[in-house]
What we know:
Layout: H1 2-17, E1 21-26, E2 31-34, H2 36-42, E3 62-67, E4 96-102, E5 111-115, E6 123-130, E7 133-140, E8 145-150, E9 153-158, E10 164-169, E11 176-179, H3 184-187, H4 191-195, H5 220-223, H6 227-237, E12 244-251, E13 254-263, E14 271-278, H7 279-286, H8 289-310, H9 323-336, E15 342-345, H10 352-363, E16 369-373, H11 382-387, E17 388-389, E18 402-403, H12 405-408, E19 413-417, H13 424-436, E20 438-440, E21 447-449, E22 453-458, H14 462-468, H15 473-479, E23 482-485, H16 496-510, E24 517-518, H17 520-528, H18 534-548, E25 553-554, H19 573-591, H20 596-603, H21 607-617
Parallel strand pairs: 15-22, 15-23, 16-19, 19-22, 24-25
Antiparallel strand pairs: 1-2, 1-14, 3-4, 3-10, 4-5, 6-7, 7-8, 8-9, 10-11, 12-13, 13-14, 17-18, 20-21
Helix pairs in contact: 9-10, 16-18, 19-20
Amino acid sequence: MKEQEKEYGILESIADGLGRGLVYIKEDGTIGAYSKLAKEITGIRLPESQGHPAGRIEEGDIVIIADNDLGNDDNLSAADLKLLNIKDKSISEGDGILAIGAYKNSKITPVFKVAKGYGLKERMELKCRYLGFDISASIDDDNNLISISVNGQTYDMAYIEAIGHMVVLDKNTGKVKFFQARGYGFRNEEIGVLLRGKEFIRKSSDGDNTDLMPQIGLKTEKLFNGADFLKAVKDVMDCDDGYGIENVYDIHKRLMFCHLVRVKNDGQGSGVYVFMQDKDLVSSQLSSKEAMAASLEKIKRKRLPEENVQTIDGFKNFIGNDRSMIAVKRLAAKAAKNRFNVMLTGESGTGKSVLAKEIHDIQMPDAPFVEVCCNAISPTLFESELFGYAPGAFTGASSQGKAGYFEEANGGTIFLDEIGDIPPEMQIKLLHVIQNKRIYRVGDTKPVDVNVRIIAATNKDLEKETEKGTFRKDLYYRINVFPIYIPPLRERKGDLYFLANSILDQYCRECSIEPKQFSQEAIDIIMSYPWPGNVRELKNVVECAANICDEELIYSEHLMISQGKAGIVRGTLKERLEKAEKDIIQEALSNNGLDKNKAIEELGLSRSTFYKKIKDLGIEQ
């Protein structure tokens, strides 16, 4: 047996060197061995650094579909599209469709594009901002390529004749919870099956997908569904030792270049050895080295964003996938790996306390985490609360004394929230603690050594406070070692849909309330409201809506915010159009750094029209 494994190992090494996968089929027609590269070629294992856990599509998840031939190799019907609120009766088998919608939420409007009887040799594309996400989907029939892109992260699928591609975004986190990949036929993950409720398996690039059925011992026809290929295996199995054939076979709707060799011997290892290679890869190898290098560079570029996201997966309670929030999480991940003093800044309600706890938990989940709200402590009690006091230190003091917050946090983290409100006389004492890593209890002369990591937070501009003399510069420099700014919610509206859903689902679970969903009009208000109170205000509004709404769907009347402030335009058609035009022009100017020439180019307007609209709409120049 060991000799057989050694021989197979040699063959696998040779196959890998030639860029080919190796599958050994035993005399009884079962799979005897399956190389790593063969798993990558057939999609059992992903060669790229992308992956996702097992799961299923849930109500409210955003589903993006790109399908060049509805009903062909996708197990999808027009009726299934109703799950995305797509009810166009003209859609039928054979159509090409690009669609974006919220799963099983009939109140959120989908976006879709249909090409009837899609046999057109032209590019089909859908591009829009949907619920705060920049999403595009395209079908390039000339190059047999379907692509779905979410906020710059692209998922490509090549095809021979037809393919159903899909990406799913989790309604609570905004992260990609599923993406289609080659080998979906083997995994039984056609998009129609998944839309109808089937669980999808884990995808992994750092090892085999153990959720799949075992490959070793499996009947060949259970693993490969290409009729011509299966016939070739049977024919070669009936031949003499050393017989071999080469051909291109359609396996799971993908062309494979295969070399089948018959091996007969008296011991172990008899059967058919299949050396396989993706036909697309064979073709690319025949092209120039420059083209191959460009392809590899493209793959590398596409992998980087996903790799970066994977490094920040520890922030489970700090929700946000907007680019600005990804940057925040990257900084926080770096801070967590070291014991730097961290300064969190940003408006009130942005989630500074949540991020502080997440930074602590990544490296020190079992160590103490002590949160101190500095503006809630009386100035006369500040010293005793932070550093503790000795027995009988002052009138009313406990006879046993008391440990302060710094002692309680020893070996872990102390979070000083609203540090800008610390009284001036306490700032010098805090500075000494940071410098010397020791405290003195009130009324005691014996020092207590403390090993504490400090995370501070404020919504004040401490640099300006130091200039005014209300905050010590030396203390500011000590605590501002690793600054992290959390942007307000109005600057990261791409997170709103997922934050609102996450808060709603969690609140319904905690309070044993029947699950609820947002209607389209409620989503519109949530997306357009500026949220001056940030996540804290959003949480209050969503929880209040869940309480006062007696039905499954939350409507605008359940949201306790001003519709005027939410930007919901009332009035005549002319007034609404003018408001929309003004918003579009202002957004174009903002996107281009107030460069009017670039804004004109983006909007496709003439200079005279642009400047006339600026004047008529009262836009400040």
